[in-house]
Amino acid sequence: MPVIAPMPAARPARVPSQRDGADGAVVAGTTVDHLTETYRAHYRSLLGLAALLLDDTASCEDVVQEAFIRVHSARKRVRDPEKTLAYLRQTVVNLSRSALRRRILGLKLLSKPMPDMASAEEGAYDQLERDSLIKAMKGLQRRQREVLVLRYFADMTEAQVADTLGISLGSVKAYGSRGIAALRLAMGASA
């Protein structure tokens, strides 16, 4: 749980009521004095509420401060001063939800890191190797090429290659061995 900074000691004060006024007239909405007293009395509890919803102290303090600012701006609409604390609590909860939504959206919108990509030189070198491999493969006998393609590019077992080509397992091994030797010779000569 985040560390919450202590608030200055609040002096017990009388919470103004709606009927405060020299002539006894009803005051419309929550007064600034009432909000100030509510701030002194309930700031820490609202900070604790925000701390339960958010994970860092700075965000909690921001949310609570913003809640007081919003309720202060709309204090004329809070007709019953006794409900000021309820409005503040609801505002803290709503602002905490918004903060969490913004974080989630921010994480989703972060550009994903680019995968490790080969440099242009590496790509050109790989292309040359592929071209030389294809050229060397074309120079092999037909059966050698078929065995190597099925064995290493189609990822078949020797038994599967034998069944596919209709030849014995020994022939697959022999064609494969001779084909690899011929490729090594051809690739070594081109390098």
UniProtKB/TrEMBL annotation:
Q: Where is the composition biased (Low complexity)?
A: 1-16
Residue ranges constituting the RNA polymerase sigma-70 region domain according to the UniProt record: 39-103
Which PANTHER family does the protein's record reference?
Answer: ECF RNA POLYMERASE SIGMA FACTOR SIGM, RNA POLYMERASE ECF-TYPE SIGMA FACTO
Q: Which GO terms describe its biological process?
A: DNA-templated transcription initiation
Q: Which residues form the RNA polymerase sigma factor 70 region 4 type domain?
A: 131-183
Q: Which NCBIfam families does the UniProt entry name for this protein?
A: SigE-fam_strep, sigma70-ECF
Q: Does the keyword Transcription regulation apply?
A: yes
Superkingdom assignment: Bacteria
**Signal sequence, renumbered to the chain:** none
Pfam families in the record: Sigma70_r2, Sigma70_r4_2
The entry's protein name is RNA polymerase subunit sigma-24
Q: What protein family is recorded?
A: Belongs to the sigma-70 factor family. ECF subfamily.
Query: Region (Disordered) spans which residues?
Result: 1-21
